[in-house]
Amino acid sequence: MNTTKNDTAIGVWPTLVYRDGQAALTFLTEGLGFTLVAAHPGAAEGSIAHAELTWPAGGGVMVSSIDRNAEPNEFDQLAGQRQAVYLVHSDPDTVYERVLAAGATLLREMREEDYGSRGFSVTDPEDNVWSIGTYAGER
To answer: This protein's superkingdom (predicted)?
Structure first.
């Protein structure tokens, strides 16, 4: 697996646990546009013990596979629950077609929000919600 050196300091890391960690990494990099900066194999063949992905606008997520350890732990329960992450992007239209082609299911169509954001929401192949929009928070 290829990794990229990370020079970005990130203070918050949403952590997602997937049944199929390899498929998640493909979806997150090729579909959404994350950059894989670290990946460590888990106990089972093809599992992900720990992966770090950065988002072009800043921030990142950590990903692992449910079968990363020989024994289950408290984080494994996340794989059976819907998780949600919001991503800031200056041009969400560029992500829209790419993420649908990567296997996302459209949850909320692209739209303009009354608070000034433009964006949409999809679910990934394991039903986690990814919202992509221009709203970057209050400044």
So the answer is: Bacteria
Q: Report pTM.
A: 0.89
- For residues 105 and 123, the answer to whether their CB atoms sit within 8 Å is yes
**For the CA atoms of the chain, what is the radius of gyration?**
15
Domain span holding position 56: 15-69+77-133
Residue closest to 128 by CA, chosen among 65, 91, 86: 86
User: At 96, which CATH number?
Assistant: 3.10.180.10
pLDDT digits (tens, 9 = 90+) for 50-85: 999 999 999 999 999 998 888 878 888 888 899 999
- 42 domain residue, yes or no: yes
Helix, strand, coil distribution of the chain in percent, nearest 5: 20, 35, 45
